[in-house]
Design brief:
The protein has a seven-stranded parallel sheet, sandwiched between helices. 45% of the residues lie in helices and 14% in strands. The protein is α/β, with parallel strands linked by helices. The radius of gyration is 19 Å and the shape is globular. β1, α3 and β2 form a beta-alpha-beta unit. The protein has a single domain, classed as 3-Layer(aba) Sandwich (Rossmann fold), CATH 3.40.50. The chain contains nine helices and seven strands. It comes from Ornithinibacillus halophilus. InterPro entries: NAD(P)-bd_dom_sf, SDR_fam.
Length: 273
């Protein structure tokens, strides 16, 4: 048994329950052109549901739709940079025009930055763009669509990160702060949403082998979940409507992260003359 199969054991998916649950439902997936969003689209395409897949790369969305032409699901694509106000307004108008409303939102679009604070002193935009896509965009979508979800007893699934539950780490200030912001926001409003029949699910993920991790060379040889495994976890959360998924070992990681932070000694930056 390989290390990855121990750290990231496979998830059992009751396909009969999933089929019954998503039948004729409308599901929005953001960040759907690659990685987790793409894998989820391909899994759900096997069922008679309506998928609205959103991403910036229209050509990739078109290719996915073409590949799924003969699958049971109805797939509609929408090109949008969720940081762009005009494109966001267009997406929200589309969602409000849906004849049968909206049932499930999978908030998956995100951006990660790995950079020392000393390399960020003249890069304020690193923080605005991570906050825009990781926090403001999903909040904007939900503020507009909560009435739609309430009408259909819908569900919000947030694709989060274990970093939101770990002690802060160097080099990831922009990413960790922005992901934590939406995680706290969703947990804060979840009790209000639950009383109105809207389920909320937070999926805390470790490293996932997606294009997002490619710029960080060290990540390429580290154990990581496959997007397909994550997609299965998301699908299962749709019919269980559980509030949270996290790796079995996260509790140990949380303890370790506190001690590791105390012991971490980073090299000092050379002073410029």
């Amino acid at each position: 048994m390989g290390l990855e199969s121990i750290i990231f054991p496979p998830t059992y998916l009751n396909r009969k329950k999933l089929r019954s649950h998503v039948n004729r439902k409308t599901i929005l997936i953001t960040g759907a052109s690659s990685g987790i969003g793409e894998a989820l689209t391909y899994q759900l395409a096997n069922y008679s549901c309506h998928l609205i897949i959103v991403a910036r790369r229209e050509e990739k969305l078109k290719k996915i739709k073409e590949n799924l032409n003969k699958f049971p699901a109805t797939v509609n694509i929408y090109k949008a940079d969720l940081r762009n106000e005009h494109e966001m307004e267009g997406l929200l108008s589309l969602l409000h025009a849906l004849p049968n409303g909206l049932d499930i939102i999978v908030s998956n679009a995100g951006k990660s930055i790995n950079r020392s604070i000393y390399d960020s002193l003249d890069r304020y935009h690193d923080f605005t763009r991570t906050m825009n896509i990781n926090y403001f965009a999903p909040v904007n979508i939900l503020l507009s669509t909560i009435p739609l979800l309430k009408k259909n007893n819908g569900q919000i699934i947030n694709i989060s990160t274990i970093n939101a539950l770990l002690a802060p780490v160097p080099y990831f200030a922009a990413y960790q702060a922005s992901k934590s912001a939406f995680d706290v926001w969703l947990r804060s409003v979840s009790s209000e949403l639950t009383t109105e029949g809207i389920a909320t699910t937070s999926i805390y993920l470790p490293l996932v082998r997606t294009p997002m991790i490619q710029p960080t060379i060290a990540y390429r040889s580290m154990p990581a979940m496959s997007p397909e495994n994550v997609a299965t976890i998301i699908c299962k959360s749709m019919y269980t409507r559980r509030k949270k998924y996290q790796p079995w070992w996260l509790i140990f990681g949380q303890i370790l992260s506190v001690f590791a932070r105390r012991l971490t000694i980073l090299p000092k930056k050379e002073k410029k003359e």
